[in-house]
Amino acid sequence: MIPACPLASLPRGEALRLDVDPPIAVFHTDDGDIFAIDDTCTHQDASLADGWLEGCEIECPLHASRFDLRTGQVDAPPAKRPVRTHRVVVEDGVICVVPSDAPPNLPPGVTLKGQA
Amino acid sequence: MKTVCVVGASLAGLLTARALRGQGYAGRLVVIGEETHRPYDRPPLSKDYLKGVIGEADLALEGDGEDPAIEWRLGVAATGLDAAARRITLSDGTSIAADGIVIATGAAARRLPGTEGLRGVHTLRTLDDARALRGDLETAGRLVVIGGGFIGAEVAATARELGLDVTLVESGEAPLAGVVGLTMAHALAELHEKRGVRLIRGAYVTEVTGTGRADGVRLADGTHLPADVVVVGIGATPSTGWLEGSGVELGDGVVCDEGGGTSVPGIVAVGDCAAWFDPALGRHHRIEHWTGARQRATVAAATLLSGGTARPEPARPAYFWSDQFDVKIQFIGHARDADTVTVEEGDPAHNSFLAVYRQGDRPVAVLGVNQVRLFTRWRRHLETAPAQTG
Ligand SMILES: Cc1cc2nc3c(=O)[nH]c(=O)nc-3n(C[C@H](O)[C@H](O)[C@H](O)COP(=O)(O)OP(=O)(O)OC[C@H]3O[C@@H](n4cnc5c(N)ncnc54)[C@H](O)[C@@H]3O)c2cc1C
Ligand code: FES
């Protein structure tokens, strides 16, 4: 489990990037839900934490594919593969991410640092 | 509607076909495409694909297991249209009648007259073009790019990264000036020059020299630029030749209303081939960018299925991106509407800045260079600002 930040320091509508490998993005939606997904878009090397959060969807800041934060599913090209989702727990006012053990869907040309 | 026929099997055609299914159309759906390939993504053709970072499989636009029940007719071109009967004639001698037609034939690269049949001269629009150019660049030392539009600038950057000696010949004062305005175009030009691209401004090409194979480019002032490979990037023209005389109104592309409806009921047009009426600009405007096709596919599908009664949401300002060297360029809006442009973040000298274009106090366009996060905020602002008409 990775502690991300105190709940109070991530306002609604904001995102946070965790510099783990591969990086994880944590979102606090306008409705007050918290989600974590891999930060790297499955299309190319873009940080989804820099994207446009709307409801439960994050729009990639480069080419506008939208990912559902609950399922990781993508709506339309250019991205084709879903983004990996992670479980989030809030403990004692701290947002924590439980990293998924599924393989990530990194874009072509992007590798894990350990394997670069 | 029992049969809908989409002409053009690329981005706009695929997304409109998908949107038709998404909006409940359950009839026969035929997609006709001149190229033999399933729909693929063009932007990487001048960038990561040309560089060899990604392969052809990565270009596919369809997702794994996606099946919107499309009848593909690939490798055949539409050669004519009888608009009243809604019958399309095809290059294989057959024809197909449809209740609804989507025109999505995109655009074709403009060629330089007199270079036909000369090996080593390339345009870049299709996967086949990119394969040929990639092959030619492998053994080349010197590249001359004619035309400093997006494709020319991107090919120059990619070839430079591949280690070639690159000269970019631009007829105007700076590449991309028509899109981002002169001040910012100078900043982007510097980015190329710093990375070793030789930039020749205000120059006209009179001839590509060589017999059988190109060996250089001659300029109007007599200068001869030796080259192993020449790339011609002088724009694209809408692929609407097959519609001549059909009754569908043509201008700079297929003339459409603000929902993509053409002058003929039951026929819509979308993507690079279509000039939709833009109420904010007060005129028809052909968008030649990826997101234009993406946003408008849904609207065009709704227009077709509703018989033109669907009221489109106000159009979002055009957004596009370009990758050159290690720099991500993003742009939204229309620079030509602006009286002023100011750098509000970063510094052009450090390859990371954001510039805002204003008409009076009102922001009308934004340029981001390696400012993805901030640009996204500005994009959201411009896209959600109430549309100003007139
Ligand atoms: C090299 C390159 C790089 C690009 N980079 C960027 C970028 O970085 N950012 C950006 O925003 N945009 C970029 N673009 C633009 C973007 O790719 C286009 O806006 C987009 O492809 C338009 O899609 P379309 O479906 O309308 O047209 P097209 O993609 O041109 O597809 C039209 C299809 O119709 C077919 N066709 C034509 N005539 C007929 C006929 N008579 N019968 C049957 N089929 C026919 C063609 O063969 C083609 O497959 C780039 C384009 C190119 C070529
Ligand atoms: S990088 Fe995310 S859609 Fe292209």
Question: How would you describe the overall organization of this protein?
Answer:
The complex is a heterodimer of chains A (116) and B (390). In chain A, β5 (52-54) and β6 (57-59) form a beta hairpin. Chain A has strands at 2-6, 15-18, 24-28, 34-38, 52-54, 57-59, 66-68, 85-91, 94-98. With 116 residues, chain A is mainly beta. Chain A is globular. The mean pLDDT of chain A is 94. Chain A has one domain: Rieske Iron-sulfur Protein (3-layer Sandwich). Chain B is an alpha/beta fold and 390 residues long. Chain B has three domains: 3-108 and 237-305, FAD/NAD(P)-binding domain; 111-234, FAD/NAD(P)-binding domain (3-Layer(bba) Sandwich), CATH 3.50.50; 326-384, FAD/NAD-linked reductase, C-terminal dimerisation domain (Enolase-like, domain 1, 2-Layer Sandwich), CATH 3.30.390.30. Chain B has helices at 11-22, 48-51, 127-139, 150-161, 177-180, 182-194, 290-306, 372-384, and strands at 3-7, 28-33, 71-74, 78-82, 87-90, 95-97, 100-103, 107-109, 121-122, 142-146, 165-169, 198-200, 205-209, 216-219, 224-226, 229-232, 236-238, 250-251, 253-256, 267-269, 274-278, 283-286, 319-324, 327-333, 340-347, 352-359, 362-369. In chain B, the strands form seven sheets. In chain B, strands 3-2-1-7-20 form a five-stranded parallel beta sheet, with helices on one face. In chain B, α2 (48-51) links the parallel β2 (28-33) and β3 (71-74). In chain B, α1 (11-22) packs across α7 (290-306). The longest helix of chain B has 17 residues, at 290-306. The two termini of chain B are 37 Å apart. The model of chain B has no long low-confidence stretch (mean pLDDT 94). Classes of the chains: A mainly beta (116), B alpha/beta (390). Chains A and B meet through loops of A and α1, α7 and α8 of B.
